[in-house]
Amino acid sequence: MEKSKRAKSKKYLALLAVSIVLALLIFFFIGSKGSLSMFGNSSSDKIFGKKSAAQAEVPVPEPTCTDGIQNQGEGGVDCGGPCPESCPPSCNDGILNQDEEKTDCGGTICSACPTCTDGIQNQGERHTDCGGPCQACPPDCTDGIQNQDETGVDCGGTICGPCPTCTDGIQNQGEVGIDCWGPCPNACPIITALTAEELAKVKDAILSSEFISALPKDGIIALHFFNYQYGQRVELDTIFIGKDQILTSGTPDLTILMHTKYIAEITPTNLCEIIPKANTNGDLGVETSMSESSLLFKYAGILKYKSCFGL
Fold first, then answer.
1. 23-55 burial code (b ≥16 CB/10 A, e <16)
2. pTM of the full predicted structure?
3. Would strands 221-229 and 245-247 be described as parallel, antiparallel, or unpaired?
4. How does pLDDT run across 82-94, given as a tens digit for each residue?
5. Of 170, 189, 208, which one is at a domain's C-terminal end?
6. Pair (211, 157) in one structural domain
């Protein structure tokens, strides 16, 4: 019984060894033929990124004068430009040829040349078949001439619209603002203060910010607003910030200057996002009379909030 088990075990091991040998032979034989490979030699395998012949880049042929394509500055397909053969005459070659009456028009081949009686506004005419090379157009309210019964150039009278004035409620005639400056004697109004709503909005955002509690007791930071009106910089309100409070006045150690256009974006929770945004956009300035070391020593408690001040 024991001998029978041993014999079966030997037979099983022999069959297993033969199977392994056959599998290895098949593997290496198929791999050498290129139909399957662990190293990316077949057309369907790209383990190491090798390209097959089908994937190889095909070189683009250089343009020639016999490639049947209009390229390389040719006037037509394989003619003109760098090619030795001249292109045949056409209706768009910019040359008076064939039986054309004028350059590229008229005759039996090309379309009719424009005239002053063709009912089309062309050839530099101001209106259809008048002006430019044709007879003058009749007076109208856009001819740049004071005619008809106009009281100004192309305005006023019974035919054209009213002429612009400094009291018409419209910014026109070179005015800097509506009915002010430019040709008008009235000065344009300059807004020099924030509205009550804007001030309340900014102060609420400051008092809701974490950094206000970290200020030193004798520290004052100012938030100053400016904008540009009619091409000039205008200074508006300054808000003085002390520890846990808004002050009515004071001498600030640090002044942050910010454009008023960011007030519309301020909420009670995002002041420390808006100030860096203004800084990134070039709409923020920082001024101080203290040295850097003195400023750092006095305001060491708010260093973690320095981005809130554009620093």
1. eeeeeeeeeeeeeeeeeebbeebeeeeeeeeee
2. 0.54
3. unpaired
4. 999 989 999 988 8
5. 189
6. no
